[in-house]
Amino acid sequence: MTTFPSGIYYRDAYRNWAQIFKIMAVLWLVLAMFMALPWIVLIIEKDPDAPAFGVSLLIILSATLITWLLTRRVSLELKPWQMFILTAGSWTSISCFASLPLILGAPQLSVTNAVFESVSAITTKWLFKIYRALRPVAVE
């Protein structure tokens, strides 16, 4: 006879994953805030890509709101395995959400190219600029 997991198992499993998604919702909100200013500039400039940017911002805010509402009562006590999944999941989800304006506004780009461009923009370019800004000045 097969025994099924008890309600306690499901409650603990929900709590473990909800902690991860609660933090990811905050990170998604930060991404949405960084996307709001360029969207306002696109609207002012009457750029044809403004609707695609606005729709992607709406998608990100909707995902953030739904995730936050589902996890609002969960306390944050992360275990090491949750931190690992949070790191991988946040990089993946932020890169995918950041590629939405390219997916929606640039039909000539494939989804793969759009995600590649957003990942390279988030990691390589900005890290290089931070490195150049923080490196010590050479003494002559």
User: What is Rg?
Assistant: 19 Å
Taking the alpha carbons of the first and last residues, their distance comes to 79 Å
Summarize model confidence as the mean pLDDT.
84
Overall geometry: globular
List the total number of helices. 5
The proportion of residues in beta strands is under 5%
Backbone structural class: mainly alpha
Sketch the major β-sheet.
none
Tell me the total number of β-strands: 0
The run of helices and strands is HHHHH
Helix content: over 70%
Oligomer: single chain
In the predicted model, the low-confidence regions spanning at least 5 consecutive residues are none
Topology:
Blueprint: H1 7-44, H2 50-71, H3 80-98, H4 100-105, H5 111-134
Helix pairs in contact: 1-2, 1-3
State the gist of this model.
The protein has 140 residues and is an all-alpha fold. It has helices at residues 7-44, 50-71, 80-98, 100-105, 111-134. The radius of gyration is 19 Å and the shape is globular.
Polypeptide structure, described:
The protein is mainly α. The protein is built from 5 helices and no strands. Helix 1 packs parallel to helix 3. The radius of gyration is 19 Å and the shape is globular. It starts with 6 loop residues before the first helix and ends in a 6-residue tail after the last helix.
